[in-house]
Amino acid sequence: MPVTTSEPIQALAVQRISGEERQAQLDQVAVELPVALIFNGISQAVMMATPADLEAFALGFALSEGLLQSRAECYGIELLQQPQGWEVQLQVAASAEMRLKERRRTLVGRTGCGLCGIDSLRQLDLAPQPLAATARREIAPAAVARAFAQLPALQPLNAQTGAHHAAAWATPDGELLLVMEDVGRHNALDKLLGRRLMDGQRCDDGSGFVIMSSRASYELVLKCARLGVPALATISAPTTLAVDIARRTGLQLYGFCRGEQAVLYAG
Description:
By secondary structure, the chain is of the alpha/beta class. It folds into two domains: 33-120, Ubiquitin-like (UB roll), CATH 3.10.20.10; 141-266, Cytidine Deaminase, domain 2 (3-Layer(aba) Sandwich). It has seven helices and 13 strands. Strand 11, helix 7 (240-249) and strand 12 form a beta-alpha-beta unit. The longest helix has 14 residues, at 185-198.
C-alpha cells in the first residue's frame, strides 16, 4: 500500500551516477496518490494525482467533465485521509445526483487518463456547445509569449522534481495570475479551473486564458470549452481531435509556444 501523505513531494534515498562514480543522495520525488471523488456518498471516479489543492481539483473535475452544470450545484466539499490515499466527498444538488446515477463513471485512471472506465463509444462527449459570444476573445501571440516567459519561475514543485505539469491563468495581455501544479496535466487544469470558481471568479467572461506546460490533448480542449475559456496555449503539440474540437467550439488554440514562436491551430 502507498504511504498516505499530505505533502506533494517526498525525499527518497537514491544513487546519483556519473560515469563510474556513484554518490548517495536524497532526491525530491513527486508524490502520486489515488484520489477518490465521491458525490453524495457515491464513488464516481478514482484518479491518480498530487495530494495538494484537492478541493479545487474535485470541483474543477466535476464541472469540466460535465458532472455538474454549475458551481451552485456543489453545496460542500470535505477531505478524508485514508490508508490508501484520499477521499474527496462532494455534497451536490439532487438534480446533479440524478444525472450522475445515469452517467456513472467509476473509472480508475492512470495519471490524467481520459477514457478509462468508459463503457462504450456512445458515452463519449466530443461535441460541446460553441463558446458564447461573451466568452470569445482574441489572444495575441505577444500575450502568449509573455505568459510562458513567466511560467518557469512560478512552478516551485516542478523546480524540485521535474515531474509536475502546470496550468496557469493569464490576463488577456499575458500576465499570470494563478498557477497550479500536478503530476497529471488534466489534474493541473482541473485544479486551476476549480480554484478560480472557488474564489468566485469566472472562466467564461473573456477575462483571461489558459497556458499549460504540456501537449494539447482533446480532453484539455474539452475541459476549457465546457467552462467557456476563450483560449488555450500549450508548450507542445496538439492532436487532430484537439484542433477539431477547438475549431468547432470557437476556442483559440496555440501549440509549440516556445520563446517568441508559436503555432496557431484554431481561432
